[in-house]
Amino acid sequence: MGQSDLDNGTEDTVYDGSQETSLGNDSMNTYKPAFVEDITKHLSVQISLILAYSLIILLGLAGNTLVIYMIILYRNMRTVTNYFIANLALADLMVDTVCLPFTLVYTLLDEWKFGAVMCHMVPYGQALSVHVSILTLTVIALERYRCIVFHLGQRLNRCTSFIIIGLTWALAAILAGPLAIFREYRHEEIPYIDLRIAVCSEKWPNGTNRDAIIYSLSVLLLQYVVPLAIISYAYVCIWIKLKNHVSPSNRSDGIGRRKKTTKMLALVVVVFAVCWLPFHVFQLASDLDLILKFKEYKLIYTLFHIVAMCSTFVNPLLYGWMNQNYRNGFLMFFRCEHKPDSIYPDGSFRTRSLRGMIVNGHNDGQPATAV
Asked: Does residue 173 carry a pLDDT above 90?
């Protein structure tokens, strides 16, 4: 998940060897366990962590599942942008199911309880989901840039959008590959208390921290800096174009919808950037061995990880707050109302018998009112 292995800042109270440095780019909390002065062992802290992670998991599962459900359920929600939003929701669901439960258990128990196979697969799945998220956000920004800035009325068709989604997963799988390959599941002996525990950690070819730092810096650039620079440039150009655009009165509604949708999508990117910035800065400092001796290292790491994971459930809240289509669909779902065939921004619902008149003349059977 774009996170490093977690070393406990108090481990020198238990181990007499050299400190195992922060090695990677996953949220496994992979570290040598410590049993002295570890604030995360306090009952009140553990209860708080359980509640925080549980709330994020529940909100993420509910919100992102509902987003995907709506796009499948309502025909006029099946637009190219919404397909990409569904892909983003799928990546967030992967975080909630593959990342957070394992991270919480490992943080609380200081031992890897899930075996050798999961030691390789879990960090890989974590990194994969974050790469998919940022690549999808980049694709959305570039697609809107192509259509709005260059006045290209012909949007991507459904087949092309699915091909692009497949390519984002393929590229993300390649970028996350090292976290599955350079991994080690082993048992650690703790002679002072006669304890033998299972540990899941990264193991790079040269056995030094150099490869880990190179990989972490590369991922920081590819997963955060470069994509956000591209996205920022695209949305700035889009905003300038829409702000200066003068259109006939019969097109003013369409321009207004584009502005609202662009504002919503840009805010999604801002939330992603803000949530992940503290963690990326902390990880880089860890890789450079600048903060590993802090007594509260493990707790600070966990708190920054929680902030980063908040991005997995915020998106559905933004959709419901800023987009009338999603808001209407959410309200219908929670009211358990009979599903119509389509939902529309004015709050009305169309039945199947009227669809032919409503969508007639719109590209690919998709009303212009959809996101």
From this structure: yes
